User: Fold these one by one.
Assistant:
Number 1:
Amino acid sequence: WKMYRAAERLKLLISHLDRSPSAIVSFFYVVDCNLLTPEQRLFYEENGFILIKNLVSAEDIEKFRKEFERICRQEVTVPGLLVLRDVAIAKSEFIPDQSMVSKIQDFQEDHELFRYCTLPQILEYVECFTGPNIMAMHTMLINKPPDAGKKTSRHPMHQDLHYFPFRPADRIVCSWTAMEKMNRQNGCLVVLPGTHTGTLQEHDYPEWEGGVNKLYHGVRNYDSQHSRLYLEMEKGDTVFFHPLLIHGSGMNLTDGFRKSISCHYASADCYYIDVKGTTQENIEREVMEFATKKYAVDDEYTFKDTWAFRGRLVQGERISM
């Protein structure tokens, strides 16, 4: 498998050198797409991500911010929405304010926030990785808080595919948009370029002294000497990345909150898998325990069902998802 992928990348490099109209270009991670330049395609193939500047307008971002604040103030109730608090303040008295919320996810029933997942300028890039039939599978708005001194605002290095019981991985992509300026001070994304060409690694909670936020699993044994890149971004910049790319984020060392909004997309041609007997058993078990406790689901409700329930068709035809 690794040899096959290496051969594909070699063909890509050869075709990249041949710029004649008759050149046959072979891409492993990008589908036929006229939007990306040859340089952008090559960069994604080699690195597993691509950053597009100023893709989402300041006006839209402000609307998303206001809707998030309404949710935090409990002015609106969104069915199925999960509201999470940083572990450092999880046991303190809840005040309906954004300072108490570190992340919301599964906002597919919130019209304003879900509008992000349907923005035409987002979907035209997503189609380059999934093809024309697109499902929005997982939604998040992260409100990374100023670190309380226990380093809990950081996110361990991980691969998003760990959470997903559907394949193939190469037809899944995340769209992640900065809602304000991001740098190393406030905990921007950090990626390990090229790790998307590997396999899914074993994940679990890291043994951090200050504690770890719920469902923040990390890769157990990644190469800490691998070159890393900090993605400093301006408001509206959007990064698209492969679900096997190892990435995370550092502490927020500023006094403000660092917001981002994201959606994981999959081709509607993708299919569900049984994760029993794989490295994903631990996340399946944790998700099902949570679903049973929060939603009182019965024994017939499966890990696959938790995803099928949340998935929404945003373009084309819903086929097997």
Number 2:
Amino acid sequence: VVTLCFHVPYSALTMFISRDQKERDSATAYRMMVEVLGTVLGTAIQGQIIGGNSNCPTESDAPYSTNSSSVNTTIVSLDQTKQAYLVASGVICIIYVLCAAILFFGVKEQKETGRDKSEPLTFAQGLRLVMCHGPYIKLVIGFLFTSLAFMLLEGNFALFITYALGHRKDFQNILLVIMLSGALTIPWWQWFLTRFGKKKAAYFGISWAVPFMILIVSVKSNLIVSYLVSVAAGVSVAAAFLLPWSMLPDVVDDFKVQNPDIRGHEALFYSFYVFFIKFASGVSLGISTLSLKFAGYVTGECSQPEAVSMTLKVLVSPVPVVLIAVGLLILKTYPIDEERRQGNRKLLQAML
């Protein structure tokens, strides 16, 4: 709840710091790059504090026990693990509060001008209008499927690296490589969408991960291949982070053009998009938890049954690939191309 109370107004603030599309796109790119870097920082803090409390054997320590359920050499006490999580949570909470304070005192909203005669929407009116706006529904549903795909991949990748590939001591570093690759390629995606358009960037960026999802489960476990795939996957993660938030302001602008006498609706577009993303996160968690439970996964064990390895392979490759394909097919019907976007920009300038 606390995260949602912060995330919804924080995301919607993009619409209020500038009325210019290029400036909003640039602000979105900077915001997403910092968010990914924040994720890198959180992963590093969490991994270094908590990851150091595992004493399970690596492949070199026990080459024949990767999938043997009879081996369990975890010697770290529960109290040590709890303490590690408490320390990591405390550090991250301090960073969270500090960043929120910087946002509150450092960012100024632009006041809306030229439309004093219009009345703000009630929640019921806004909900009805937003849910009936075709481009918004197509954008949200399309990215709902692609977001679910990447959440399944991200949520199970650490377990996949640990139990299916056997890189127990390297999974934190591999996750850091993915997020660093994503952070460093966000500026490139910003240039790409400016040069070729946002729909093309969405298709190319999101589909980029598909061959590497297939590769990682097709080849024999190899640490170098895992790192190479992680770098390539990070490129697609950057597109998945950036493009939905870059395209959402265009939908809001399109709504303004079609409903020039309505104001106060921006937060509704962002809040419902955040809701659908959180919904996808919940669905991803449910699918992963149930699938691993049926496969016989035991939390805290150093080794897992063979069925767990197979389930993890399915959760990080075939299922996300199908979801990405469905999401991209839906995005194909998204009507706001570059020509319509530029036309909306000119109309809004005239209105202002």
Number 3:
Amino acid sequence: MLFKQQAWLRQKLLVLGSLAVGSLLYLVARVGSLDRLQPICPIEGRFGARGQADFPLRALQFKRGLLHEFRKGNSSKEQVRLHDLVQQLPKAIIIGVRKGGTRALLEMLNLHPAVVKASQEIHFFDNDENYAKGIEWYRKKMPFSYPQQITIEKSPAYFITEEVPERIYKMNSSIKLLIIVREPTTRAISDYTQVLEGKERKNKTYYKFEKLAIDPNTCEVNTKYKAVRTSIYTKHLERWLKYFPIEQFHIVDGDRLITEPLPELQLVEKFLNLPPRISQYNLYFNATRGFYCLRFNIIFNKCLAGSKGRIHPEVDPSVITKLRKFFHPFNQKFYQITGRTLNWP
């Protein structure tokens, strides 16, 4: 009889212990990451009106779980109204560049409690059919957020589409624009690799990169090939500068974001007038993936999709040399315009 009572007591203690540990983990997850358990840091009053300067960042972090439920569609109009949630037009847009690291940048910025991301590429400004639906349609594609937060979306096609600068200017002439770039030849090969993978999935053949990048008739760089044309950053940027001053652009080094993300993210925080919140705790290197992954708190981690970081095909070294020589004067002009020199060969 005594043995049964002892066994019953041990079982009860085990259950109570599990509940206590579970409750503790839940509370830590709701409050946020351990490095965020510090005195409340108010958002600086540079986002606009509605008393945003008085809204604590930790409160925003605490409510992220609620926003996640709204993103999943588990909300009613009454709940939205009670929590003072809104769907705001973006105050910043990642406009490009394709295969420059736009998805990684967006996901990393989403670590900041004052940032809310649009999960999907909306293609409002570069798609005539979507643009014809009007600005209200665009706003309703944005995630729910608190008025004190800023919404960011990314659509890499914006950077190279001729009509986009004017369309964005008409929406908000003071919007902040983020451009993430990689070494132009590497970016062009990455662009090719993504298209090649899509062709192979459909059992279709595709030309080798060398045949597309080099004109067989002239043996010169083929500027009609889209992957090459996209990497001439200065040509596209000049079109944007007809509508926006250079001060409204921030250049992100996509190559450095892969190897050393924190300094790049801190520069973006400063550009967006966000108080510094992203720390080394939020970024950890995954040796298996070969990339940095994201740590929101002690429970929730996230790595980018497996399609990121594709292995590039081998390319003839002479073609790489020719491309780098071709891009060099455009790169120099890009450095001059933006005021940022990147270590490209």
Number 4:
Amino acid sequence: MTDREEIMESASHDNAQSAKKNSKTSLLDSGEDFEVLDEEDIDDDEPPPLEDAGEGKVKPTHSENANADPDPTGQVDEWLDVLGNGQLKKKVLKEGEGRDSRPQKGQNVKIRLKTSLVDGTLVEEKPDLAFTLGDGDVIQALDLTVQLMAMGEEALIQTDAKYAYGARGSLEPAVPANAELSLEVKLLEATDAPDLELLPPAEKIALASQKRERGNAHYQRGDYAFAVNSYSIALQITESSSKVDITPEEEEGLLDVKVKCLNNMAASQLKLDHYDAALKSCVSALEHQPDNIKALFRMGKVRVALVLSTIHAELSKLVKKHSEQRGAEQAMYKKMLGNHSDNSSTQKPRAKSSWVRLSWKWLFGATAVAIGGVALSVVIAARN
């Protein structure tokens, strides 16, 4: 498989997960101001600091080398346009052990990382940053490019803010909004992920919590689809079978992480208007903890959203039907009177006024029902 096929397969998968509730823009492309997470929205006593939240032809940027070997390990001093849009580029500084030594998605990798702004300002240095490749544990620029590096390779990566810390920037590390970054990376190690069935329960809880916290960071940045992905990975860890002994306390710890992930996933799915999926997440959480206040509250929010969505659809149908009826009436007047200008001018305001009153009655009634649903959920949760 060529570099282009490998990286575009990865990018396609990530972009499919990051499709927003409105199909016109993706999470990464959106300039919308998402609300910052508050305590009612997520299960975390101390939310993590703000961190990181195309398709094209992969080619060297120098036209005279357009027919060169696409393997970057043989292209020292040549830039590889990873996504073909000029926003993510990679240059080999020191060759590694060859294409066969490249890490695979799902493996645990360790890299040496130096991050700088494009003007040379140092952001941070990490001598041994470890993460799971493809899990969204790091900024997208690293997830996409490290898989193209050979073992021992040193590379320079230049990335647009879109694949780094985006329009919001970051508090830790300190990165300004919309900042392009320069990353110096050396691939140190790549190992297979541990067998979850053989993983000690304490380590399993820690790993699931780490993925959940990463989802919290995505949620805070408004990257709700990436948050759902992280929570899903955490859930897979908590639900995996075990071939080692586990104490009741450890079982309770895994269950606690699982319910928190389900609650936070429901919050993310609500943001994406995935109401049916959010409802399933709430139901699953309540199956384990029937008195969980946050799950009950979110259940109410989901039901309200479903009611309002139905009302919106019905109002749209009524508006369309009314418009068609008015057009038919006007056509009839034309046939009956020949000159319909005076009659239409007197009839139209009355019809419009009547329709506006009807629409608002529907809207206010539906809103009252929705608010009642939320109030009922809150009362039930409070009583419990």
